[in-house]
């Protein structure tokens, strides 16, 4: 392997005892230097970003990795043995270990691989240069492509080798390019990568909806995904994965509202902002992307218009909406409504309404069917009718909690209905 090109300093994960236990186990079987940290942890350390997952690359083949881990008393999970991946469990955490590989055959979605001991060959099959970086236990960084370190330092998302070839090998790399652009990109995007993504956009039709959804939500979780989404639209990628997305202003507005609130990204609601506006259209998009039931229901509810929420609504009207819809639905609808004019004169009103919605405590009528029967109603459909009328009055009166007042109203309703029969 080529000489080190950089020295990591202050990367706590390099001295993490759980990670070192995995390195020790593998090096006991394969010798010093048979394993390196790879990919995201190295990239993020260079870029000054938090590191979540620690992945490793090794010269050892999966059966050897498994034997080495078990000999050291660590658990080995065969998470992707056919592609050379074993997950070590150390310190209660998972460390993905993959044998160095080269592609033998690809069809755009799956690859047949052969194991290798050539670090450069392993780097050559990776997606972006800033992901083809390796580091040893001393923090020395190796850059087989010769371009990864500079790309990470500059925030350039550049395919390894020829962009079109990388995409033909693995079609989801189109979506990965825009996701990485949103999360890590700085400056002007790579023209060759954009051209290749545009030329191969039709290949996205072969991807499972679940994979598309995962990539979209990850992209939309970036602090500001708007430049990447606009590039997806300009290259023809966005219409392939979200045919209903046209007007991007709703996403623009929602991102501005989140910033005005000081709130973190809400990727699912951002996805909903890219959907067409009506509940029926949202339901169709949710079905096409295979959203979970909870995800689908949330976005359909957020797209609803009844009761209408306006910046000038009174506290009483807001409380009524909160009781009918629930706090989470109201908050979603308020943010979407505010996003139509995020910098407008009503911004303070929207902010106030959201604060009241976040502080809302659900109210209970406190009257049951048994109470209605005790007041003189005969058991049966009439009980539900009385409860619905009582609740409507209770909301109109702004949720009185006085039990005597509720009892008086209950009796008045029964008299108005001609008794309890």
Overview of the molecule:
It contains 21 helices and 10 strands. The relative contact order is 0.06. It is elongated and about 90 Å long. The protein is of the alpha+beta class. 51% of the residues lie in helices and 11% in strands. It starts with 5 loop residues before the first strand and ends in a 5-residue tail after the last helix.
Defining traits:
Beta Polymerase, domain 2, cca-adding enzyme, domain 2, alpha+beta, two-stranded antiparallel ribbon, 421 residues
Short structural summary:
By secondary structure, the chain is α+β, with helices and mostly antiparallel strands.
Give the arrangement of secondary structure elements.
Elements: E1 6-7, H1 17-30, E2 35-38, H2 40-47, E3 55-58, H3 62-71, E4 75-80, E5 85-90, E6 93-99, E7 101-106, E8 111-115, H4 119-124, E9 134-135, E10 140-142, H5 148-154, H6 163-169, H7 173-184, H8 191-199, H9 209-220, H10 226-234, H11 237-241, H12 249-261, H13 267-274, H14 279-288, H15 293-303, H16 315-325, H17 327-339, H18 347-359, H19 369-374, H20 381-396, H21 403-416
Parallel strand pairs: 3-6
Antiparallel strand pairs: 1-10, 2-3, 2-9, 4-5, 5-6, 7-8, 9-10
């Amino acid at each position: 392997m080529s000489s080190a090109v950089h020295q990591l300093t202050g990367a706590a994960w390099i001295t993490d005892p759980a990670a070192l236990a995995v390195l020790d186990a593998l090096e006991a079987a394969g010798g010093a230097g048979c394993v390196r940290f790879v990919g995201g942890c190295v990239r993020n350390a260079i870029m000054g970003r938090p590191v979540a997952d620690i992945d490793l690359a090794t010269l050892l083949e999966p059966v050897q990795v498994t034997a080495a881990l078990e000999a050291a008393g660590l658990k080995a999970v065969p998470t992707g043995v056919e592609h050379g991946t074993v997950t070590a469990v150390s310190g209660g955490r998972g460390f993905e270990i993959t044998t160095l590989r080269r592609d033998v055959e690809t069809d755009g979605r799956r690859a047949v691989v052969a194991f290798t001991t050539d670090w450069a060959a392993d780097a050559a099959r990776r997606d972006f240069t800033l992901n083809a970086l390796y580091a040893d236990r001393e923090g020395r960084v190796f850059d087989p492509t010769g371009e990864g370190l500079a790309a990470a330092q500059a925030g350039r998302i550049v395919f390894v080798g020829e962009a079109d070839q990388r995409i033909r090998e693995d079609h989801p790399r189109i979506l990965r390019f825009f996701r990485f652009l949103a999360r890590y990109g700085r400056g002007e995007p790579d023209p060759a990568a954009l051209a290749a993504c545009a030329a191969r956009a039709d290949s996205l039709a072969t991807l499972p909806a679940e994979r598309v959804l995962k990539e979209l939500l990850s992209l939309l979780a970036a602090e500001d995904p708007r430049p990447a989404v606009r590039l997806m639209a300009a290259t023809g990628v966005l219409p392939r994965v979200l045919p209903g997305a046209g007007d991007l202003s709703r996403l623009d507005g929602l991102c501005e509202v989140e910033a005005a609130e000081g709130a973190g990204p809400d990727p699912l609601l951002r996805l909903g902002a890219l959907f067409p506006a009506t509940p029926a259209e949202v339901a169709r998009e949710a079905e096409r992307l295979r959203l979970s039931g909870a995800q689908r229901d949330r976005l359909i509810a957020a797209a609803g218009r009844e009761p209408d929420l306006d910046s000038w609504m009174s506290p009483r009207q807001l409380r009524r909406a909160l009781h009918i819809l629930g706090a989470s639905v109201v908050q979603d609808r308020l943010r979407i409504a505010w996003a139509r004019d995020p910098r407008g004169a009503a911004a303070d009103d929207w902010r106030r309404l959201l604060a009241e919605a976040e502080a809302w405590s659900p109210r209970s009528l406190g009257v049951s069917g048994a109470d209605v029967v005790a007041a003189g109603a005969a058991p049966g459909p009439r009980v539900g009718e009385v409860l619905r009328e009582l609740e409507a009055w209770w909301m109109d009166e702004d949720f009185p909690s006085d039990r005597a007042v509720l009892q008086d109203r209950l009796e008045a309703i029964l008299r108005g209905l001609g008794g309890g029969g």
